[in-house]
Amino acid sequence: MSAYFDHNATTRIDDGVLDAMMPFLRDEYGNASSRHDAGTRARKALNVAREQVAALVNVRPSQVVFVSGGTEANNMFVKGMASYLKPSQIAVSAIEHPCVMKPAAGLVRSGWELRKIKVDANGVLDLADVDAALREPTGLVSVMLANNETGVLQPVAEVAQRARAANAWMHTDAVQVAGKLPADFEALGVHAMTLSAHKIYGPKGAGALVVDKRLPIKPLIDGGGHENGLRSGTENVPAIVGFGAASELALHRRHALAAHTAQLRDLVETGLVELGATLFGAGAPRIPNTTYFAFGNIDGETLVIELNKAGFAVASGSACSSTSTDPSATLLAMGVDADLARGAVRLSLGVDNTMRQADEFLTAVATVVDRLRRLTAVAV
Ligand code: PLP
With a 6 A CB cut-off, is 69 part of the ligand 1 pocket? Predict the structure, then answer.
């Protein structure tokens, strides 16, 4: 009895993806910039991967800039754009991942205004607050396509329309949507989009900033001029090949995976509510694999540790802030009481999870919660 339920943190590399990468980890070690045959083979492999990633989000291959992951892509948009623009306002949702929020906050030192746009009780961006924000001169807007904790989808197309009307550059962090639901760059109307390979059954260490070719972006890393001058450094060919293969896989199985995880998610949520849990964001459209919940008076960290002992890997708050005991900024932005927010646990499902695991999880939660409640009662 055990299960990995932390797919929003990272996913197991798919066997086919690993097979596609292996030659480039062993025999095909050429540098993609070299003019000999080994270099040419590496360059061709990068080109194929660029086409595969482009197909996943409906852009031309030339719009894909390979970087080391989602964190770098988000930093690249915020800092790389800000260094070309005259300081004005950067508007971001109040629930962005720290790798958008921190660079955005850092711009304040160079004269930018940071505006955090409100979300409602379900964690959905408030479009009236977007309109209010855009009444001020705004250079940059960044709104994630789905939140990594709640899984709640954001009205990015509506924001992009408004941002364009206000002459602002619009970015979306689509890390948690790619591979789960469509993330169509053109349909969303954005100027830039972030992707990460390890969230879609690919390897760690590869991601992309997908860009509108007119984007005035300054590279974070200068050097030999790789990636059209936007990201220097010898390309991580095996990881990028894996990213390409994972993107192709994601495109083909997205619908089936969404149906599979939604079925398990619904089963788990019904069981959790019966056990007395509060669900966060469940009243809004969400990615199909995520459930975020809390039991009143039970600490989320403790629940995660106890469930881990029982064999279940889940997360408390967001994976990236799991060393901190502060309540989740996302839940606080949704107006959730800080004590209840401290109890938050996220379960994120993936391709290998089964009905049986979901049932066993519910049994484990019932046992652990009952034990913790009795301990709390004794302590009081
Ligand atoms: N953006 C979101 C919404 C995420 O969930 C994450 C990872 O947790 C990232 C960005 C960072 O991506 P990476 O791990 O590829 O740097």
Answer: yes
147 Cα nearest atom in ligand 1: 3
CA of residue 266 to ligand 1 center, whole Å: 25
Find out whether the beta carbon of 317 lies less than 6 Å from any atom of ligand 1. no
d(CA 331, CA 156): 20
H or E segment to which residue 92 belongs: strand 89-93
Cα separation, 291 vs 268, in Å, equals 8
Atom of ligand 1 nearest to the CA of 99: 10
Instruction: Name the residue at shortest CA distance from atom 5 of ligand 1.
Output: 148
Q: Specify the residue with its C-alpha closest to ligand 1, atom 12.
A: 70
Active-site position among 320, 351, 366, 372: 320
Taking alpha carbons only, the member of 94, 85, 84, 146 closest to residue 115 is 94
Whether residue 93 has its Cβ less than 6 Å from ligand 1: no
Cα–Cα distance for residue pair 356/301, rounded to 1 Å: 25
Ligand 1 atom nearest to 197, measured from its CA: 15
∠ CA 114-175-232, nearest 5°, is 80
Tell how many helices (H) and how many strands (E) occur in the chain: 12, 13
Q: What is the pLDDT along the chain (380 residues), one digit of tens a residue?
A: 789 999 999 999 999 999 999 999 999 999 999 999 999 999 999 999 999 999 999 999 999 999 999 999 999 999 999 999 999 999 999 999 999 999 999 999 999 999 999 999 999 999 999 999 999 999 999 999 999 999 999 999 999 999 999 999 999 999 999 999 999 999 999 999 999 999 999 999 999 999 998 999 999 999 999 999 999 999 999 999 999 999 999 999 999 999 999 999 999 999 999 999 999 999 999 999 999 999 999 999 999 999 999 999 999 984 444 455 789 999 999 999 999 999 999 999 999 999 999 999 999 999 999 999 988 776 65
State yes or no: is 99 an active-site residue. Answer: no
